[in-house]
Amino acid sequence: MKRALITGITGQDGSYLAELLLEKGYEVYGLRRRTSTPNFENVAAIQDRIHWLSGDLTDLASLIEAVRVSDPDEVYNLAAQSFVAASWPQPIATGQITGMAVTNMLEAVRIVKPTARFYQASSSEMFGKVVETPQKETTPFYPRSPYGVAKVYGHWITVNYRESFNMYACSGILFNHESPRRGLEFVTRKVTNAVARIKLGLDRELRMGNLDALRDWGYAGDYVKAMWLMLQQDEPDDYVIATGETHSVRELLEVAFGYVGLDYRQYVVIDPAFVRPAEVDLLLGDSSKAGSKLGWKREVDFKQLIEMMVNQDLERNRT
Ligand code: NDP
Ligand code: GDR
């Protein structure tokens, strides 16, 4: 039986990945930081099947202990301060958790179990300002937020440990991926939750930022399969994971409100508080390398994804 250690297991991706690995017969260890209120919502269905480890990505001692106890074949480093907008008011914490702490995790693996395979959750936010489209593995990085800058550090330190210590370390450059488990502050879930609440008569307006931003949105359940596939290859490498389609925030509003028979223009108010100091205008990924080398392809398209999220938010808000 293979053993996997997942950081960020209580988040969106961590919960889907844990389910996937359990289905495949893995023994799953989850690193969880102490929180003042419990946040097991995403992992409620599998909570009893996870071996829980207490730790924080910024605390190297806890990571060394986690690797020692779990003795993993595979380590998935998904933990991060992952909300781009929060990285301006909290630039240092974001740098420490999303950037520097990747070295903590790599060091824990190098010291305790250097043969373990390592996955780093890199991001399309590293591309930032448009240099070329579609963006692929060779596209230069030009991050536009403290989050993006921190992810570039995490990305290159992962590549560096692969080249310096011959570790099996991969970096998945994942474009936006969403699900009913997405945090409520991210734009897709913010919109689908608002649509449900407006439809049910619980809210009357939705305050939004830049509606012209373009994103390549996929389904998280599809994307965690790519993480696993990256660690099953003969050689470690980096891969872009994306749908190859881009949609504006405005289109997201049209599809989500339209699905329940509403016109978004009657409810959306533009609020400068949600406009970012610097924006990533256009993300559109080319995942043909993952297609040919990993045999990966997405299953859920944009419309199906948004409808799935609206349906679940309708159900949640009814109860
Ligand atoms: P979430 O925000 O849903 O989950 C982040 C997880 O990290 C949570 O479990 C959180 O714990 C944990 N975490 C945060 N800080 C620490 C810390 N200091 N020590 C230990 N754990 C910590 O993110 P996603 O699941 O959406 O994303 C997973 C990873 O993939 C992240 O690294 C993200 O940056 C990256 N990524 C995500 C993309 C996306 O579109 N979803 C695209 C590309 C990359 P807690 O519950 O306590 O907050
Ligand atoms: P992003 O996701 O920054 O791309 O990072 P988010 O959903 O927060 O924003 C997407 C786009 O929507 C615009 N936008 C708004 N965003 C939010 N959150 N709230 C609003 O009211 C709003 N109005 C317009 C934003 O300006 C932006 O252009 C996500 C995260 O999961 C990262 O961790 C990950 O690395 C990247 O995706 C790829």
TrEMBL record:
Coiled-coil regions in this chain? none
Q: Which UniProt keywords apply?
A: Lyase, NADP
The biological process GO terms on file are: 'de novo' GDP-L-fucose biosynthetic process
What chemistry does it catalyse, as a reaction equation?
GDP-alpha-D-mannose = GDP-4-dehydro-alpha-D-rhamnose + H2O
Q: Which EC number(s) does UniProt give?
A: 4.2.1.47
Which residues belong to any copy of the NAD(P)-binding domain?
5-309
InterPro entries in alphabetical order? GDP_Man_deHydtase (IPR006368), NAD(P)-bd_dom (IPR016040), NAD(P)-bd_dom_sf (IPR036291)
State the needed cofactors, names only. Answer: NADP(+)
Q: State one molecular function term (GO).
A: NADP+ binding
Query: Mind telling me what this protein is named?
Result: GDP-mannose 4,6-dehydratase
Q: Which organism is it from?
A: Paenibacillus cellulosilyticus
